Amino acid sequence: MIKVICNSNANGVFEQLGQAFSMRSTMSSWLSKAGLVGIAIVAATAYAAAQMPNHARMHEQMNSGSPDQHQQMMQQGGPTMHGMQGGMGQHGMMGTKSAGQPTLPGQEAFGTIQQVVRILDEDPATDWSKVNISALREHLIDMDEVTMRATAVDHALDNGIEIAVTGEGRTIDAIKRMVPAHVHELSQLGWNAKTENIPNGVKLTVISQDAKQVTKLKALGFMGIMVQGSHHQLHHLMMAKNEFVH
To answer: Phi and psi at residue 223, in whole multiples of 5°?
Structure first.
């Protein structure tokens, strides 16, 4: 009887020990797996942090830190940190800051007068009692009339070119003021030039003994001949100073 009880008790003990061992093994396996998962999470977090740009990590640290820590990080960041802030500030200003300022005056005669007035302003020797900007304006109107509204009909000569320049209204007056005045400048270039009045305008004749120059004259035509020489800009300033009449 005692033997049977002992055997029964022994079997119960062995069964409990077996269950305990089984549970321990299962728990150990679970803890082992949990440990591996934890290690993987830590490694992934470290890798992600390593891939983050320095300024992103610094920004994250500044957001989570105290004002004192923020100031300390700014000082430690040095030029790089200040450069980042400057760039961010400039980026923010892009929406309101102009990309540039216009430089063109919007109208050629206006721009010419503006330039001449600036030159006079910057010259301490300017005698404003003699300055006549209105005369310059009238000349610029003449230039516009002759350039844009005059009619020029070329007639080729063996030794040059003959051009009938005509117009209507104010254009006629502009032609008669500008074309004869240009003859002297053409003579300075080695060409023989003359003008004569015709109905509604002027006939301009320019000739040369040089065959190459004759070819050039025919290629230039009326306006090409009118723009010859570098005197125009100087004359504009002299007109404004009332030192030259075209």
So the answer is: -70, -30
